[in-house]
Design brief:
7 strands, Rossmann fold, seven-stranded parallel β-sheet, alpha/beta, 9 helices
Amino acid sequence: MVEMMKRLENKIAVVTGSAAGIGNAIATVFAEHGAHVVIADVDGAAAEAAAAAIVAAGQQATPALVDVSRGQDVSALFRMLKARFGRADVIVNNAGINVRADFRHLTDEEWVRIREVNLDGVVRIARDGFELLKASGQGSLVNVASIMGHRGLRQLAAYSATKGAVAALTRALAVEYAPFNIRVNTLSPGFVETALTDRVLRNPAIRKALLDQTPMRRFGTAEDIARAALFFASDDSAFVTGAELCVDGGMAAGL
């Protein structure tokens, strides 16, 4: 049997929101490719379980309790990384939330909470993680946005606004971080079947409408997104920065 080529051998990779869903798939694929993965998640018990599963499979993982909306949590994460590893080769900003509401009924509290996680959290991780990415000598920062940053959908205005801002921030950081040999790119998933989207996608009418807007006529899987993240994390994308990859079955192309 031919051994799989490990594209992240000896890399230190941090993935936020990685105890479940897309983030967990990304962390699992990274670990399979040789990375020591830090499972950073707001659910500490779930992070420990996810890290244990990776270790049980013979790979390397460390859990970390991190709420990206809390500056002290982010600072503590990078203090730990500096003390233990001295660098971060890959950071994936995956943590995100959504509140479905008609915009005219969106409360200030709901807007602030969405923004604090989806945008402010990305800002904190990207800013506070800079020195460790620089120490890598070939750092890769991957920000997970969404196809909803490009299009409108009822009850997703706040989510769309934050994800569009993440894509714009990525382009600016790509220019600013390039002199330090840090690549910054965006992944924009389409609709992926996870626990987060289950309530919406199990509605037959909504499911059909979204499939009709997806040229490939299927929803994505967490594994689909993880494979794209692996490209941005690895040396395969060594000359790619400031790019946005829509992993959406062609939804963006059909706009």
